Amino acid sequence: MDSLAVERTHALSHLRDADAWMLAEEIPDLDFFFSHIWQRSFVNVLANSCGLNYTRVLSFWRGYHMQFYFGTKDSHDFAKHLMNKLKDDPTWGATINRNITWHSDRLVAHAKDLHATELVKLTNAELWLHYAEHVRRHSTLYEWGWLPNAVDMFHPEFTTYLKAVLRGQAQDEEEVNTWFVTLTTSEKKTIANQEHEDLVKLALKIKADKPFAARFRDGPQNAMDHTPDHYRHIFQAIFEKYRHLKFMYHGHAGTLLDVYAALQPLVQGRKSLDKELERIEKLPQNARRAKDQRLKELCLSKKQAQLFDVFAEFMYTKWYRRNAQILALFHLEPLLQEIASRIGVSLQNVRTMLSSEVRDALQDPAKHGGAQLKKKLDERFAYFAYYAENGKEQIFTGNDAEKLEKAATAVTIDRNVKELVGQTACLGKAIGAARIIMGPKDLHKMKKGDIMVAIATDPDVVPGMKIAAAIVTEQGGVTSHAAIVSRELGVPCIIGTKIATKWLKDGDRVEVDATKGIVRKL
Q1: Residues 119 and 19 in one domain
Q2: Structural domain for 429, as ranges
Q3: Would you give the distance in Å from CA 211 to the centre of its chain?
Q4: The whole model's pTM is what?
Q5: Sorting pLDDT into bands at 50, 70 and 90, what band is 252?
Q6: Half-sphere exposure (CA, 13 Å, Cβ side) for 261?
């Protein structure tokens, strides 16, 4: 075990519980600094909002690749607990959504203020207070922000309940899915849709300016090098508004060239931008009109109608929370860099530390920082396990981590299965070549009409989602990023297939029937 661990194994009450570990999420590009905030929150502070915590959580790390586990029964009991509270009082769902937006704004406000601070002038104690305040605000956001995920992501209690309500009035499952999508689509535009709208508006303007539009034929760099002066402030505004979306949790912010690269297919493409802009602008009113029409045709109780509205709002606040986190972490980066400098380690090392370790190193860098700490953290980064239960957390390395991983539930894959079943996120059908997309580094594989297959999607792969004929993910309830963005783009999408990236390989020809929630190998 890591000598920097804050608890000993014998003090952990639930590590050896009989409840089998369930793989909840696999994220190929994530840092421990961000992750351990929410994992620790799951077992300590969720009770503040809903009266219950998870009992224990476990994650395994290889560099920035994480596999995260809940107890199977524990996570299912938590989802059922939330669903019962929502059914008893649907207005509690509105309380959840209000708190998500409020705490998201507070998280961003602190990070922006910090970004404008001259960190080199702060003492180590002051750096720690800012670090601790971010962790506190981020944890408080998770008290509310995690609840929409928990009630549907791993055990689809919310989706199952709402579809059961519809099933009594529908002719078949296809109709159930169609009605469900209509009644749970948010009328509010996410930042992804705002960005797309801004790009389409600018592309329309550029297309009308034929000399400038011609510059895009020779690539984004050529267009940027020959941008007329009266366009520059427009490009700069879009860049500053959306650059954090590529940063995600620990990466690199977008560049001005990225704006030109996103515009090129719009400026050079044959798609009618007038019609695309009209579609985007009418999304909210069309969603409301379709929902009102469906509600008139169905016999729903007041509580049932309220729950459909809560679900639709969950789809918006999930993305609102995610955007706030990315923006906050983007602005927080200089603080982590300054801490690394003060304690004599790398930025990567700081991203691999527990909060208590950061505190100790800032309080006494000579004793808890420097070369010895850096060596331990470099070794930890290669492979370690993190475990947390109420009031306790521990890092495991080496054989101890391996033993824990062997005890975790393995995912079995039968490659002879001809079809997978998941949840319908966005209606439609498509046939195309599968492309396994594990992150933005794989987007070069995507061609228009391909099927994007991912563990989950994030803002940094949206360019690939825009040209996909369909999207298939392993993870996520209907409040997932893939579900939200696919509906805004109108791209057929199936989520929650559990093994799609392992069952399929690049080039496999597949049929996606998202209306029925089925993926078939052809």
Answers
A1: yes
A2: 419-521
A3: 40
A4: 0.89
A5: confident
A6: 10
